[in-house]
Task: inverse folding
C-alpha cells in the first residue's frame, strides 16, 4: 500500500533577478499537477518549479495568488514572498540572455548532429539489407527463404521510416540552433532597435502620465516610478546600440535625408517620394503594378482617380536616389544599382535639392474666392433626383452658387453610386453649361451620402504644349539690334513664329490667305447622305483626354471641306469629323471656339452650329 506523502510548507518567492520560484516540493507529491495549469514548470537549472517568463519582470500576482489558493485548497500551507526592488541591471540581463542563447545554439546543434548521424545510420542499414533484393528477386512463397525475406523487408521499411523521422528531427533542431545563433544579431539590429525604441518611448510617456495623475490624486505612484526607472535604463541601452551601429557605418535614415521627388529603395524596389513626413515617407504606390523595379508618380496616377500613395517607416529604407538621376537612368531604359544610387545621393544630398528649389522664384498662386473649387453630388433615396452643390476650397457651400437639382432623362433613374454614367453625365453636362469641368482627381465618397470632386474653369483656348513652349521662348529671347520683333502671334497656335508680312506660321503652317479648298460635289445618288449631320472635332498629338473635343456641328459635305482644308491642320493638331460622335458628356464635350478659323469658314461659306441635338432635329425637319 502506497503511503500519502506528508504535506509540507510551500514557498513561492519572486524577485526581479530570479523570477518566480516555488520551493518545498518534491517529485511525486502532486504539487506540479496542481500548479502546471498556472504556468509553472520545472527546469534542471532551477531548484524547484518556476513561473514561465517571470524573470526580470514584475510579479504576475494573479497567477501567483491563483496557484497559492489552489495549493491551500489541496491542504498545503503556502507562503508568498514578493520583492520588486531586487533586480539586475538591463545590461546584465541582456548579457545573460545572449549567453543562454549561445548555450542553446550549442545544445541544439548537438541534437541536430546526433539526429543527422542516426538518420544516416538508419539509411545505411536499410541499403545494406536491400542488397539481397537489388536484382529484383521476389519473395518466394512457400520457399524456406520466405520468412527471412519478409523480415528483411520489414526491417528495410522500419529503417527507412526511422531515417526520415530522424532527418526531420535533425532539420528541426538545426533551425532552432540557427535561430539561437542569430539571436544576438537580430536583437541588436539597428533598424529593429529603432522600432523597439519607438514603442519604449511611448510606454515611458504613458507611465509618466500615470505617475503625474497618481501624484495629483494623492495615490501611491511607486510602481510607476519604478517602471519609469527601468524603461529609462532600457532606452539608454538601446540608444547606445544604435550609436554603435552608426559608428560602424550603418546608415540610419530620417526625414532630413529626403525631399519630394527623390526615389527611396524599400521592399526591394524604388518608389518616388511624394511627401516627407516626420516618421514616415509617402511613396507612389499602385497595387496593380507591384512589384515593380521603379514606381514613379506617373505609375501611381490612374486617370479619373487620385494619386495612389503608401506610407513606409524610415527603418525599412535601404537607399536613396535623387529624382533627376533616376529619371536620367529611366530615360535610357536602365535602373541604377545600389552602389550607383548611393554615390549619386552623396553628390546630390537632399539639403542641396531643397536649397535649389528654395532659390527658384515662385509665383504666388492666388485663387479667386468667387470661383468654386469642388462640387458635391447627393442622390435622393428614390433616385429620381440629385442635388449638386458648389463648394469652396474648404469644402464649404459656396455663397454665390445656389444648389441645383439634377434630374435623369425621361424614363430613367439615377443609381446610388456616382460611378454610374447616368448621374455622372448629368453632373458633367450641367457643369459644362456653367463653364466648368471636372479635374483629373477622382471622386471622394458615394453619391447617396454626398460624393465630391474638384472642378476647374474651362479655359478660353487650349494651345498645344509645343505652341506654349515656342511662345515662352519667343518672349524670353533677348532682343537683337536690327532685328524686328513680330508684333503678332499665330491666331491658331499662338506661336511666336508667326510672320505678319506673309501671314504664315512657321510652327503650325497656318495660312489664312491660302486658296480655299472647294467642297466636293456630291456623287449621283449620294445627295441625301452628304447632307446628313456630322460633328467636327479638334485633336492634338500632345493631349490625352478622356472625351473628344467638339467644335461644330455641320453637314457631312461641309465637314469634309473644313477638315480637308490645309489651313485647319498643323504640326501638332488637326480637325476630324464623325457622323456617330456618341453621347455628350461621356464620349465628347463642347470646347470654346476662339474664332481663329472664322476666315476659313467664311471662305467656304459654312455657318456651323453648336447644338448637336438641335442640328439633328433641324435636318430631320428639312428632309421630312
Result:
Amino acid at each position: 500500500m502506497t503511503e500519502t506523502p506528508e504535506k509540507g510548507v510551500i514557498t513561492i518567492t519572486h524577485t526581479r533577478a530570479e523570477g518566480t520560484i516555488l520551493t518545498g516540493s518534491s517529485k511525486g507529491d502532486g504539487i506540479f499537477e496542481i500548479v502546471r495549469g498556472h504556468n509553472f514548470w520545472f527546469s534542471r537549472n532551477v531548484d524547484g518549479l518556476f513561473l514561465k517568463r517571470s524573470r526580470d519582470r514584475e510579479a504576475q500576482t494573479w497567477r501567483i495568488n491563483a496557484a497559492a489558493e489552489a495549493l491551500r485548497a489541496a491542504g498545503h500551507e503556502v507562503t508568498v514572498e514578493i520583492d520588486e526592488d531586487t533586480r539586475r541591471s538591463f545590461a546584465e540581463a541582456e548579457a545573460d540572455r545572449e549567453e543562454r542563447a549561445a548555450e542553446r545554439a550549442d545544445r541544439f546543434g548537438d541534437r541536430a548532429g546526433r539526429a543527422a548521424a542516426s538518420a544516416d545510420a538508419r539509411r545505411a542499414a536499410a541499403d545494406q539489407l536491400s542488397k539481397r533484393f537489388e536484382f529484383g528477386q521476389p519473395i518466394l512463397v512457400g520457399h524456406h527463404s520466405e520468412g527471412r525475406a519478409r523480415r528483411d523487408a520489414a526491417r528495410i521499411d522500419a529503417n527507412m521510416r526511422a531515417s526520415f523521422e530522424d532527418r526531420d528531427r535533425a532539420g528541426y533542431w538545426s533551425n532552432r540552433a540557427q535561430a539561437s545563433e542569430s539571436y544576438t544579431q537580430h536583437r541588436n539590429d539597428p533598424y529593429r532597435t529603432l522600432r523597439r525604441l519607438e514603442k519604449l518611448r511611448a510606454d515611458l510617456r504613458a507611465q509618466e502620465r500615470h505617475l503625474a495623475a497618481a501624484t495629483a490624486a494623492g495615490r501611491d505612484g511607486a510602481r510607476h516610478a519604478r517602471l519609469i526607472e527601468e524603461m529609462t535604463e532600457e532606452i539608454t541601452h538601446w540608444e547606445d546600440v544604435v550609436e554603435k551601429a552608426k559608428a560602424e557605418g550603418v546608415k540610419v535614415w530620417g526625414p532630413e535625408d529626403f525631399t519630394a521627388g527623390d526615389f527611396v529603395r524599400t521592399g526591394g524596389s524604388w518608389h518616388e517620394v511624394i511627401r516627407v513626413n516626420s516618421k514616415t515617407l509617402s511613396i507612389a504606390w499602385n497595387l496593380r503594378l507591384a512589384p515593380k523595379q521603379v514606381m514613379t508618380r506617373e505609375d501611381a496616377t490612374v486617370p479619373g482617380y487620385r494619386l495612389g500613395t503608401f506610407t513606409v517607416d524610415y527603418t525599412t529604407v535601404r537607399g536613396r536616389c535623387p529624382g533627376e538621376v533616376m529619371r536620367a537612368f529611366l530615360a535610357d531604359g536602365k535602373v541604377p544599382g545600389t552602389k550607383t544610387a548611393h554615390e549619386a545621393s552623396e553628390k546630390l544630398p537632399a539639403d542641396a535639392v531643397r536649397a535649389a528649389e528654395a532659390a527658384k522664384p515662385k509665383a504666388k498662386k492666388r485663387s479667386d474666392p468667387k470661383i468654386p473649387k469642388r462640387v458635391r453630388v447627393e442622390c435622393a433615396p428614390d433616385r429620381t433626383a440629385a442635388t449638386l452643390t458648389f463648394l469652396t476650397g474648404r469644402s464649404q457651400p459656396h455663397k454665390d452658387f445656389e444648389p441645383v437639382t439634377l434630374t435623369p432623362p425621361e424614363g430613367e433613374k439615377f443609381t446610388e453610386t456616382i460611378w454610374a454614367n447616368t448621374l455622372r453625365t448629368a453632373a458633367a453636362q450641367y457643369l459644362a453649361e456653367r463653364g466648368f469641368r471636372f479635374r483629373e482627381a477622382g471622386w471622394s465618397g458615394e453619391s447617396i451620402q454626398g460624393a465630391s470632386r474638384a472642378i476647374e474653369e474651362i479655359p478660353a483656348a487650349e494651345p498645344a504644349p509645343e505652341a506654349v513652349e515656342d511662345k515662352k521662348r519667343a518672349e524670353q529671347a533677348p532682343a537683337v539690334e536690327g532685328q524686328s520683333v513680330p508684333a503678332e502671334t499665330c491666331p491658331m497656335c499662338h506661336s511666336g513664329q508667326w510672320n505678319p508680312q506673309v501671314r504664315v506660321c512657321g510652327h503650325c503652317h497656318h495660312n489664312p490667305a491660302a486658296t480655299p479648298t472647294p467642297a466636293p460635289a456630291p456623287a449621283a445618288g449620294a445627295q441625301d447622305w452628304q447632307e446628313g449631320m456630322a460633328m467636327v472635332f479638334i485633336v492634338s498629338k500632345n493631349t490625352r483626354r478622356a472625351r473628344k473635343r467638339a467644335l461644330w456641328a455641320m453637314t457631312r459635305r461641309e465637314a469634309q471641306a473644313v477638315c480637308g482644308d490645309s489651313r485647319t491642320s498643323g504640326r501638332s493638331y488637326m480637325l476630324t469629323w464623325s457622323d456617330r460622335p456618341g453621347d455628350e458628356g461621356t464620349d465628347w464635350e463642347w470646347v470654346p471656339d476662339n474664332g481663329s478659323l472664322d476666315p476659313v469658314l467664311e471662305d467656304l461659306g459654312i455657318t456651323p452650329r453648336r447644338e448637336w441635338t438641335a442640328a439633328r432635329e433641324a435636318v430631320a425637319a428639312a428632309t421630312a
Remarks:
- The longest strand covers residues 269-276.
- The chain is about 40% helix and 15% strand.
- The first helix runs from residue 31 to 35.
